[in-house]
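Task card 7
Instruction: Convert sequence to structure tokens.
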Amino acid sequence: MKLLPLTMQEPRKIRTKRRSAIVDTNEKKTRIVKEIKVDTKKCAGCRACEIACSAFHATPKYSSVNTARSRIMVVMDEVKDVFVPIRAGDYAQAECNGRNKYVLDGKEYEECTFCPASCPSRDAFKEPDSGLPLKCDMCESDPPLEKPMCVEACTFGALTYEEREEEIPVSKPEETQEKRGEMKIGLEMLIKKYGFRNVADTVARMGKKG
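Output:
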């Protein structure tokens, strides 16, 4: 299989302000939902998306490449010519009690193979230095990028970026309080598992990005 060469360069940036939530007279607001669509038939397994993602999330940006730091991972079966890009999702505190199996072109795959979560049962989507879980942030940047780095780097068209607007109800005070409580529980879980120092150092590095 002949792959196109990858050249790393800083992506184009659009200097427009991000669209903020709009509140109307019916106490409704809208939000922008960002989506990356994956066409597995077009994926060649070149892993350019992993390289670009890890470079963007390096400190400082684009200073190094370490695919272990990437928020996207290409699951590969070169014999069957199957390549599936998976983006990092939410952190799971515990591994699943039961798992499904998937059959693709006659081969069985464990559910974990295509799972986007960072969990205790595997090393995928974990920050290599601290062990903290990673999650796709759509390459948030100021000024914002035109599209995430993985999409920018995909020359085969397997990844496409779309935005859509959806209407959501205004959060009630009790819902806001509940979310804060969930955030506190999440931080306590991370500190308990990885230690306060590792969590604090990771947050500090995130604050220096850009």
